[in-house]
Amino acid sequence: MPDSHAIAHNGEETADNAYSADIAHGEHPAYLRHHFNSTEQQADTTNFAMWLFLLTEVMFFGGLFTAYLIYRNWYYPAFVAGSHQLNVIWGTTNTLVLILSSFTMAMGVWCAETRRRRGLVLCLSLTFLLGLAFLGIKTIEYGEKIEKHHVPGFHYSLQSFDDPASDPEIYKEYHDKALMPDMARHTELYFSLYFAMTGMHALHMIIGIAILAFMIVRARAGAYTSGHVTFVENFGLYWHFVDIVWIYLFALLYLISRH
Amino acid sequence: MSGQNEHAHHIVGPMVYVAILFALLAGTAATVWASFIDLGPWNPVIALAIATTKASLVVLFFMGVKYSTKLTKLTVFAGIFTFLVLISMTLADYISRAWGSW
User: Fold this and answer.
1) Does pLDDT of B4 surpass 70?
2) Which domains are seen in chain A, by residue range?
3) pLDDT of residue B8
4) ipTM of this complex
5) How far apart are CA B57 and CA B12, in angstroms?
């Protein structure tokens, strides 16, 4: 470990140090940091660090899920009526899009590990496009909510819940009865959680897509396919985590009660 | 791959990823289908069971935890455990506040 030598020895031995550092550099790949013993140790350490970050993410989304769980138990009829306003077709399509993007990301990691540059660029690009498709569909869904004044705030409208027949598209499918005024009021709570949870999820998608764009540029220049795959692997972990969050959001927000 | 550059960790092959992809697609179909059937209190249970199965497949294979170090496995487990503590302690509070009034 040349670094520790540099601290321990005095000036007389600098030449010797430089020599041993040279030897060390000859022996290990350039991406191995000096405070690690081996590339394996470095890879395991960064993997562990990435998981620790994901743990903080689990607790972050965990708080939102816990809030959802409690309010859903308190105001169940409002949550059912609220979820009927979501479009299952869009929700399912987005779930499929995201699962597919997780697959292309996993294949990207494989391409990096087996040093296939063109394969990696293709997989990252597909993941990038699928991510954009997800956000596009989300935009359409948010647009519907804005049109119907289902965004919590001053312009929030209870019409679909006080008088379900006034919302024929939803009514013909579910024949919801009008909610009691106090319960109808709490649909706003459902939509608050809906926007908080899907919004936070979408923010993670946007960050992921930005990092993907950066990775595509670098991968085209030959990065990640020369043995140092840590960045792609850890980004893959992030992307899959975001996918998992959506798997739960879909089940909890869209599929509360569709019968 | 040669000598020092080689990663010690297991490389998961494309066939495994394809198999998991199809399992996840099947899971999505199953959860949508199940939500349209009236199963009373079992609806959310089944929805969460399918979601958890899908999440487990993603964690184990796409995220490679099945092939990772014990440290990583322990870390993942600690995350799930802490999340369950968050949920169960909070719910215990809400259930016990109105104790006896129902």
Assistant:
1) no
2) 1-30 (no CATH), 38-254 (1.20.120.80)
3) 54
4) 0.89
5) 13
